[in-house]
Structure formats: structure tokens, C-alpha cells
Amino acid sequence: MIEPRDAKYQWGMRVVALDDLVNDGSFPDAPVDAVLARAGDIGEIVQVGHHVEANIPVYLVEFNGLVVGCLEEEIAVPERGLVPAA
């Protein structure tokens, strides 16, 4: 059995979308190919999961009230100064 790849990011972290995140059909309340979050949008990780078959972490990130499933290559920790202090 292959060990699951460790998650790079953790629950509660603020992240930025690196590209426009579009609906691949898995978000039922929006048309396929609708933009769910724009590149540069700031979100917060609300859950960290794992795709067993692909052996990769999957992140649920809340962007502007909408929770979007993301892969590590779609998000990053924002540069200092980009995110207002809480």
C-alpha cells in the first residue's frame, strides 16, 4: 500500500487562487465551465481531504462564500502584505 502524500497546506490557512477555478461539473449549482473563483481571489481552507486513487491531497477552499475543491497546484500561500490582517 502506498502512503498518502502529505498535505502542503492545513485547515484554516488563507490561500490565493493561482488561476481562474472553473466548474468541472462537480459543482451542481453552477453551469459547467462557470468561473467559481478568479485568479488572485483569497480564500480559506475549510477542509483537507485525500483522493485515494490519485494519492494526492484535495482542499476545500471558501472563496467569497463559495466552497471550491482545489488541488495544490491551483492555490498558494499569499505573499506577505497581500492579505489584510484579521
Q: Can I get a quick summary?
A:
The protein has one domain (14-76): SH3 type barrels. Helix content is 0%, strand content 40%.
Would you kindly provide a written description of the structure presented here, covering whatever features stand out?
The chain has 86 residues and is mainly β. It has one domain: SH3 type barrels, CATH 2.30.30. 0% of the residues lie in helices and 40% in strands. The protein has strands spanning 14-17, 21-22, 35-37, 42-51, 56-63, 66-70, 75-76. The strands form 2 sheets. It has a 5-stranded antiparallel beta sheet with strand order 6-5-4-1-7, with no helix packed on it. β5 and β6 (66-70) form a beta hairpin. The protein is globular. The chain starts with 13 loop residues before the first strand and ends in a 10-residue tail after the last strand. 14% of the residues are buried. The mean pLDDT is 89. One of its GO terms (biological process) is nitrogen fixation. Keywords: Nitrogen fixation. Belongs to the NifZ family.
Short descriptors:
86 residues, mainly beta, SH3 type barrels, five-stranded antiparallel sheet, two-stranded antiparallel sheet, 7 strands
